[in-house]
Every structure is written in C-alpha cells, then in structure tokens.
Specification:
alpha+beta, single chain
Length: 169
C-alpha cells in the first residue's frame, strides 16, 4: 500500500497529499510525530530501524517516529504507529511541536512539523520485525555518551529532536 504524507505550511494549514518517499526526495514540509517512551527509572526506549527501511536502516532512533494519515490527528497517528511498530498501547501526552529539516542521505530529506509525545511504559511487548531490528532502554547519561562517541549510529532527526526535547525539559 502506498503511504502518503500530509503537506502543510508552517502554521499547519493543509496544502495537499504526496507519496511519502516523493515528499522526502523533494524535502517538502509535512506532518509528523515523534514518541519518547520511558520506564519508571527514566530510561528511554530506543528502537533500531529495520534493515529493510528505505532510509536510515539499522540506526538507533527514538521510540517511534512517523506521519499521521490524512484524516488522523497527530495523537491518533502516534497511537496507531506505536501499536503497529512495537505492539504497545499506552497513554501519550503531547509536549511540544516544532519544525526541522534534516538531510538523511541518499538524496532524501526529513522536513517536518513534528509533534512530540511522551509516555511511560514497562510491560512486555512484541515488536514488528519488518519495522524494527532491536529495542532497548537507555539512561539519559548513557545516551548522551553514545551519541557523542558514535553519532553515526543514530538517525539525523533523532539528534535534532532530542536536543529540542532537552530545551523543553
């Protein structure tokens, strides 16, 4: 099934739809969401993107990041993808939104109006191996150290979103 993203202006007014990969080639601003799940120890749940992803495969990133569909709210899209990718159902809270643009290699760009959600989760779950290669919880200190020592192991957008997250909290 072909996936489409919702193209928007900086005020989130809908401009139309475009096939997802084409929007990433053209670097056009579109709706997105990012999820940061934590356990009760304050460790963040990371996922390593599956090898079959068309960009940024086998790189570590935040819990989930994706795009709402045409008739979905940001929260509805976030809840849908959290379940599709990781098999997780939990409450999410929107914390902030911002616009960023990142070169993700291969002539592709992420240019997103990104709504960032957080939640707490510690139960067992089964992730979708077509989407996710691995998962792990990591402390903020260990994450900062790993990102400083091996930035190439992380997605470009995660680096940007994590810095924005730190500015808000």
């Amino acid at each position: 099934m072909e996936e489409f993203v919702v193209l928007v202006d900086p005020e989130d007014n809908v401009l139309g739809l475009m096939e997802k990969q084409q929007a990433h080639v053209n670097g056009l601003l579109h709706r997105a969401f990012s999820i940061f799940l934590f356990n009760t120890k304050g460790e963040m749940l990371l996922q390593k993107r599956a090898e079959g992803k068309y960009h940024s495969p086998m790189k570590w990133t935040n819990t989930v990041c994706s795009h709402p569909r045409q008739e979905e709210s940001y929260l509805q899209g976030a809840m849908r993808r959290l379940e599709e990718e990781l098999g997780i159902q939990t409450d999410l809270t929107e914390k902030f939104h911002f616009i960023y643009k990142a070169n993700v290699g291969g002539g592709l760009w992420e240019h997103e109006l990104d709504h960032v959600f957080t939640g707490i989760f510690e139960d067992e779950f089964q992730f979708n191996h077509d989407e996710v290669a691995e998962v792990r919880y990591i402390s903020p200190e260990d994450l900062d150290r790993e990102m400083a020592e091996n930035p190439e192991n992380f997605t470009e957008w995660f680096k940007i979103i994590l810095e924005e997250y730190k500015h808000h909290f």
